[in-house]
Amino acid sequence: MPQSPGKINMADVARAAGVSMATASRALNNETGVAEATRRRVLAVAEQLSYVVSPEASRLAGGVTGRVAVVVPHISRWFFATLLEGLESVLRGAELDVLLYHVDGIEDRHDFFHRLPARRKVDAVVVLAFPVAEEEQRRLELMGVTIIAAGGQHAPYPNVCINDETAGRQAMDHLLFLGHRRIAMIAAVDPDQPGDLAPPGRSNAYYAALRDAGIPIDDRLVATVNWGGSEGADAMAQLLSQPAPPTAVYAHSDEVALGAIRTLRRAGLRIPEDMSVIGIDDHPLAELTDLTTVRQPVREQGEHAGRMLLNILRGEETDHDVVVPTKLVIRGSTAPPRS
């Protein structure tokens, strides 16, 4: 009967790989004096057995690593880059090195988590802004190190995030307060993440706000697209093709909202006189384009996650779940509907 991962030790790895304990140790710790073919064989066996070097043994052998692994789905998008910037600034100030793992797409993500137990030469793992499936959680926990999350709510680890439903209600309540009753939603999903893990908060806010206002749900006023400006533009064209177009649009993000505005302007419609538009996030372009939005403090979430991690590594008390507040920022893209 195979042993459970918690009972696997280095002797098991060495025996299965056909090498001595000393060779297995050098291979697993990436030390010199091991042939590359032997190193690959030992690492393959360790992965197969889900063997993880004991953190206590690592500390006895050479102290803490001084490294933190950061897992992020996108590094070119403003939100993720800003979140990472805040986190890295705090960790750098504490003289911790950041190892960045970019899991861009379903295949990359699957490969990363499959190989995860071999990535054990870190003191902690920070998961940035994507929900972690149950099997992925199990792979993370095999590492035996501290795990925290930032920028997303769907994680069983200490985490820092906003409440997406609250942010969505702030946007919707603003449009309802202005007097809009025919409100469309452009819902955005990330095509690079599993669909069953998509955070529902911003969509839930739309339906709850309409129900609370006594407004019937019209599915023709909901367009779901992949995340991005061009996709927002296409969704707006779809909404304008309805026999009775909306008077206001609630977009899941500012990038999507700005794409919608492009379509509206090309159609000869004025904003906000003919159509109000609101987004979420307060992207740097939102202020430049006078877009009404709901601001979330992105860099601050990264910084807070960094401080939370340092407290845990030092054995100090820290909050497990931190929800940072969002704020409605009224600019020139929203106004009462025309009579």
Automatic annotation (TrEMBL):
SUPFAM superfamilies for this protein: lambda repressor-like DNA-binding domains, Periplasmic binding protein-like I
InterPro entries: HTH_LacI (IPR000843), LacI/GalR-like_sensor (IPR046335), Lambda_DNA-bd_dom_sf (IPR010982), Peripla_BP_I (IPR028082)
Domain HTH lacI-type residues, every copy: 8-62
PROSITE patterns the UniProt entry points to: HTH_LACI_1, HTH_LACI_2
Gene Ontology terms, MF aspect: DNA-binding transcription factor activity; transcription cis-regulatory region binding
Pfam families assigned to the protein according to its UniProt record, in alphabetical order: LacI, Peripla_BP_3
Protein name, entry field: LacI family DNA-binding transcriptional regulator
Entry superkingdom: Bacteria
Keyword vocabulary terms for this entry: DNA-binding, Transcription, Transcription regulation
UniProt entry tagged with the keyword Zinc-finger: no
